[in-house]
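forwarding from the other thread:

> can someone predict this with 1,6-di-O-phosphono-alpha-D-glucopyranose?

sure thing
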Amino acid sequence: ISPRATDRKMQATIEKYPRKNDVYIQYGTAGFRTKAELLDHVVFRMGVLAALRSRAKGSMAIGVMITASHNPEPDNGVKLVDPHGEMLEVAWEAIASRLANASDSEFQEELAKVAIQTGVDVNKPALVFIGRDTRSSSERLGEAAIAGVKFYQGTAVDHGQVTTPMLHYYVYAHNMNLTPDPQLEDSYFSKLASSFISLSKEITTKKNYSPFVDFDGANGVGALAIEKLLPRLGNTLLLTVHNTDTVTPSTLNKECGADYVKTHVAAPKGFEPTPNKRIVSVDGDADRVIYSYVDSQKQFHLMDGDHIASLVAGYLMEMVKDSGLELSLGLVQTAYANGNSTKYITETMKIPVAFTSTGVKHLHHKALEYDIGVYFEANGHGTVVFSNNARNLVLQAMNDEKLDESKRRVIMRLKQVMEVINSTVGDAISDMLLVETVLKARGWSMEDWEAAYQDLPSRLMKVHVKDRNVIETVDADRKCSKPDGLQKEIDRVVSSYSFGRSFVRPSGTEDVVRVYAEAETQVEADKLAVEVARVVYNNADGVGPIPS
Ligand code: G16
């Protein structure tokens, strides 16, 4: 295809996926996300862009994932996966937005400009992997993505219903020649299961650890994936799987799943929790995980991403010390991290914490600055990344015949832990296996884990406004720079609460402004959240009922 050519046949294909309205859509926190019926042209164009990106990356595979993750079923979304399984390079997000917002008649010209600007060789082959969640609109949108890839003369490989992290892994494994394409699924599950089983065999301390877990699949693709993993785990982890209805559209993420459990601070519906038994909830595309349990007094306990981060970082830190390896370890959080978690991690565990804006792409990037970078958003999205230096030192040490036996054992375990982790992106299933490994190694029950530190009471709220983009933030989302005067008002409100902290930011995935508040008691945290939500409502053209 000549990038300058405008062709009638091509125009006819473009018009099969017409841009139905002129509302601007932006590549946000996790790609494009909105009502599914508004997305056909966006997904088609992202198929085109993925083929272009593949050419720009020497014909390596690029991923296109159709999902709206934690959002309600009528929504959908699309995000691109770069060659090493990472999120799309930030500079290309603007290109994606440009193509998505071009009118039908301008699209070919805009595409030609992008091809010239990025200097792609349009004669090179292009390969795009497509994956989708279980939403009723996802199959149709998947076809639109395939049509987009073909439009730009690329090869589309449809991987069907997969979790987001599975697609990230497939892209990485293909480009790294780790496994032949027909075995990608098998390789993903075998890698997780075999490393988890090896770790489980080695760890003998059991004490208060029990292998029985209730798994909440959010009625989404995570429920399908876990069914494939289960037979491979034998009796190392005894999961009872709930919320597996991937056929009835209205059930997805409805009163269950990681986002529901974290936001409502409540057990998922769909089954009766057994007292003190661990509940593992994943979200609609299984890239987030939240632990919880209900005690014998029917009191609910939440173990969110902050707790997972401290558990995992503490274990890794101990291994680094015991191994004698010179490796830097740090943790990355966002403004949503509970104040007490940050205090515990920095003051008690003595692990440095860095802050970034919301969005795993920001955290991932920051985590790469350490040899071992642990990052988790409070909502359960996160993983651990290892530098080349860390990987090399571990491999060298394993082959060092003079190494003391106890150190060798620690290093072997560290290597297996690296294997169980999906470092390309947050992966609920891999994260669960990691948490289970640490709990087993520590011999901990949920109560033991929870005893590490106590969360400050907090509350999350959503405020509906006319245009959420009037709110702009700085300082890793912790301060509001626009509209004028809003931050001053928030500071005034917060100053009258003991241990009060609050911030607001426009969501990148939903049409709302998010409000976070924490304070000394739950009553105060709730009150503070409502007060700040009203400040937002009044200063940023709130719509609908006044927050209460
Ligand atoms: C996505 C992002 C996360 C982010 C979440 C909420 O998650 O990948 O990093 O925390 O959206 O973002 P926002 O507050 O901007 O709406 P998911 O699981 O929905 O893809």
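Residues 29-30, 69-70, 283, 287-288, 358-360, 377, 379, 381, 507-510, 514 surround 1,6-di-O-phosphono-alpha-D-glucopyranose (CB under 6 Å). thats all i got for now
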